[in-house]
Amino acid sequence: MKNRILIVDDAMLMRMMLKDIFQGNGFDVVGEADDADIALDIYKKTHPDLVTMDITLTESSGIDAIRLILDYDQDAKIIVISALDQRKVVMEALRLGAKDFIIKPFEEGHVVTSVRNLLSYQ
Predict the structure, then answer these.
(1) What percent of the chain has pLDDT over 70?
(2) Disulfide check for 82: which of 19, 68, 86, 95 has CB 3.0–4.6 Å away?
(3) Alpha-carbon distance 66 to 32, whole Å?
(4) Given phi > 0 = left and psi -120 to 50 = alpha, else beta, which region is 14?
């Protein structure tokens, strides 16, 4: 069975790029969101194995989304994917319970390796 991933990012181009990376490497993308509430709704419906989370979202923040998802499922696996200038917020996300972070711009191989490493600890 393929690992299931939810992509949360405000930029449609970034969501498309990540979706192509994941699908091209044998993962199943079960949803995409650009807002914390939408992310939580999709998470509840699909129960993904992993969530990729941007810090900047359209109506809220990635921190809000992380809190909502972890309040719903404390075992959720979340990888923050964000720009280097968001370093302080990324550290807060890790303190809240995000499992890893990837700095934009990223290389496909780094994303795939990080996701596979985190999923191998299920």
Answers:
(1) 98
(2) 86
(3) 15
(4) alpha
| pLDDT above 90 for 112 | yes
Residue-range definition of the domain harbouring residue 49: 4-119
Per residue in 49-93, pLDDT (tens digit) is 999 999 989 999 999 999 999 999 999 999 999 876 777 888 899
Encode the chain in three state secondary structure.
CCCEEEEECCCHHHHHHHHHHHHHCCCEEEEEECCHHHHHHHHHHHCCCEEEECCECCCCEHHHHHHHHHHHCCCCCEEEEEEHHHHHHHHHHHHHCCCEEEEECCCHHHHHHHHHHHHCCC
Whichever domain contains 83, its CATH number is 3.40.50.2300
**Token digits for 25?**
């490497």
Contact 101, 81 (CB under 8 A): yes
Residue 101 and residue 114: Cα distance in Å, rounded?
9
Q: What is the pTM of this model?
A: 0.94
